[in-house]
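I hope you will forgive my troubling you with a question about protein structure. The matter concerns a single protein, recorded as an amino acid sequence and a row of backbone structure tokens. Please examine both parts with care and let me know of anything in them that strikes you as inconsistent. Here, with my thanks, is the record as I have it:
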Amino acid sequence: MSAEESWKKEAEKEGATPEELKVYYEKFDPTMFIVKMQMAGDDAGQFSFTDQKQAILVGKAMAQAVKLCGSKSDPN
């Protein structure tokens, strides 16, 4: 997903109002795409890309690695 979509999704989870969502994130130029990972516990990580195809490839590779290690993967 794009960085803007990612930040907006996080703001919605935190209960931001529609007005707050309008100014919660800023526009990136070039557009940034985020691959997020949620590990066991509350550990999380993310990779940022300017190329959407590259972000998709890394996301799929990470999901495959999780599967091969015997865990569950959620592509969202």
About this structure: The chain has three helices and two strands. The chain has a mean pLDDT of 78. The longest helix spans residues 52-68. The first strand starts at residue 33 and ends at 38.
